[in-house]
Design a protein that fits this description.
- The protein is α/β, with parallel strands linked by helices.
- 18% of the residues lie in helices and 26% in strands.
- The strands form two sheets. Strands 1, 2, 3, 4, 5, 6, 7, 12 and 13 form a nine-stranded mixed sheet that branches. A four-stranded antiparallel sheet has the order 8-11-10-9, with no helix packed on it.
- Helix 2 links the parallel strand 3 and strand 4.
- The longest helix has 14 residues.
- It is globular, with a radius of gyration of 17 Å.
Length: 234
């Protein structure tokens, strides 16, 4: 199985680039500039929410194109055109919610270089999706987002901008880490998805998403006392 890494902190980028197991690395666009090494291996990740920030994000994407970067991750239909207009190749993320052959074909016709299946799509359904002309992957590791907010839910409802800044604790004492960047905040599932040790996934590649404090390392993916297999085996 081929692996890709998605990082969430600047410190993780050099470690991910030094790991030969990762063909591509998804990295927040605010960490990237003309001095970044191995630009062709990096897929820039814009914020999920744009909400009036499209011109600014489009300009930043154009600067990355001029600096030598080749592609960016699309979270939505609007992202695809935004990325392509900047001259970058658009790569589809799991938020596009691809669950059938029709959706996969349509996204390919829109110009996606590759895609990621919906995290709600079981393996048995993936097997019935007609293969397209581009690679399709799955999310195979990480604390996936449960909710996305426009404001940090921890720091007085203000834009925090700090990755892994804090956590929320529910009535059972379970901690939900938050991930803030560029005017958005994700509340993460406290239990990580671990499927990267499963070598029979009907996909071309696996994406491992590393939260703040984690080292991008394929070998460390299953050292977890508690984890979930998600909906893949339903």
């Amino acid at each position: 199985m081929k692996y890709r890494a998605e990082i969430t902190t600047k410190e993780q980028l050099s470690a991910a680039l030094a790991t030969s197991a990762f063909k591509y690395i998804y990295a927040p666009m605010e960490f990237l500039n003309e001095k970044t090494q191995e630009k062709q291996q990096i897929i820039a990740v814009p914020p999920v929410f744009l909400g009036g920030n499209e011109p600014r994000i489009a300009e930043e994407l154009r600067k990355l194109k001029e600096a030598g970067f080749k592609g960016a991750l699309a979270h939505s239909l609007g992202h695809i055109e935004l990325i392509k207009s900047a001259g970058l190749s658009a790569h589809g993320g799991f938020r596009l919610n691809i669950t059938n052959s029709i959706a996969l074909k349509q996204y390919e016709e829109m110009g996606l270089a590759d895609s990621i299946f919906s995290v709600e799509l079981p393996f048995k359904s993936m097997k019935h999706i007609a293969p397209g002309g581009s690679p399709v992957g799955i999310m195979a590791y990480g604390h996936l987002p449960l909710m996305i907010c426009r404001r940090c839910p921890v720091r007085d409802d203000k834009h925090c901008g700090k990755s892994g800044c804090n956590s929320l604790t529910d009535r059972l004492g379970i901690k939900f880490r938050t991930y803030c960047r560029l005017g958005e905040s994700e509340i993460l599932n406290p239990v990580p998805l671990v499927l990267s040790d499963y070598d029979k996934a009907p996909a071309d590649f696996c994406v491992l998403r590393f939260s703040a404090g984690e080292k991008p390392d394929v070998g460390a993916r299953i050292a977890r006392p508690t984890f979930t297999r998600g909906l893949y085996n339903k």
